[in-house]
TrEMBL record:
<dbReference type="Pfam" id="PF02525">
    <property type="entry name" value="Flavodoxin_2"/>
</dbReference>
<dbReference type="InterPro" id="IPR029039">
    <property type="entry name" value="Flavoprotein-like_sf"/>
</dbReference>
<dbReference type="InterPro" id="IPR003680">
    <property type="entry name" value="Flavodoxin_fold"/>
</dbReference>
<dbReference type="InterPro" id="IPR051545">
    <property type="entry name" value="NAD(P)H_dehydrogenase_qn"/>
</dbReference>
<dbReference type="GO" id="GO:0016491">
    <property type="term" value="F:oxidoreductase activity"/>
</dbReference>
<comment type="similarity">
    <text>Belongs to the NAD(P)H dehydrogenase (quinone) family.</text>
</comment>
<protein>
    <submittedName>
        <fullName>NAD(P)H-dependent oxidoreductase</fullName>
        <ecNumber>1.-.-.-</ecNumber>
    </submittedName>
</protein>
<feature type="domain" description="Flavodoxin-like fold">
    <location>
        <begin position="5"/>
        <end position="183"/>
    </location>
</feature>
<keyword id="KW-0560">Oxidoreductase</keyword>
Length: 215
């Protein structure tokens, strides 16, 4: 039986954070459950350079197009490899950190994640068949995040990025009022992520493997 492939993205530039503890607990349990797991840690890997030309925001179609930078191509290949994407990040200013936004801008490029059709307003969702999980930490209480921020961070990542590209979000976990929590609460959260990792290792369905050129 083919093992599911899970890509864990730690979407904070701050090393050794609560999100790291949550993500590694999830990843370790998913591996123990038989899944193949890769981790993209945005606190460790150099930030992908900002695009300076529109052509950098699409997958090269032929040799005349601007090629992807090697570090961008590596992250594109990670997403292409995955059956299931798991995002861990803190909410900053009602959204997710710029480090994660930059990674998404460079990786979810046209021709790989989505493709506009020549006529009309429709588009092709090129990441269909994949699933995702979102885990967000925040200092605000749930009611404030829902009423005042309108769940902006979750809506942006889930609706405007993942589902736009065909990725079905299976679940969203919000860990609230972090700065007011005791160590026992954080330990309980970390343990809960292990349970989610084990669940996903068992329940994620591997996709049919298709090679995609990303160079």
């Amino acid at each position: 039986m083919t093992a599911p492939r899970i890509l864990v993205v730690i979407g904070t530039p701050l090393a050794a954070s609560l999100n790291h503890a949550l993500a590694h607990s999830y990843a370790d349990a998913a591996r123990a459950g038989g899944a193949e797991v890769r981790v993209v840690d945005l606190a460790e890997q150099p930030a992908l350079p900002q695009p300076t030309r529109r052509e950098e925001l699409r997958l090269p179609r032929d040799e005349s197009d601007v090629p992807l930078l090697p570090e961008v191509a590596a992250s594109v290949a990670d997403v292409e490899w995955a059956d299931h994407l798991v995002f861990f990040f803190p909410q900053w200013w009602g959204s997710y950190p710029a480090a994660l936004k930059n990674w998404i801008d460079r990786v979810f490029v046209s021709g790989f994640a989505h493709r506009y059709r020549p006529t009309g307003r429709l588009w092709d969702k090129l990441l269909s068949g994949r699933t995702a999980r979102i885990v967000m930490t925040m200092d605000s209480p749930s009611f404030w995040n829902a009423w005042v921020y309108r769940e902006a961070a979750i809506r942006s990542l889930r609706n405007a990025t993942l589902e736009y590209c065909g990725v079905k979000v299976r679940a969203v976990t919000r860990l609230t009022e972090v700065r007011h929590r005791a160590d026992t609460d954080r330990e309980r959260w970390v343990g809960g992520m292990a349970s989610l990792g084990a669940t996903d290792a068992e329940s994620v369905t591997p996709r049919a493997r298709e090679a995609v050129a990303v160079g």
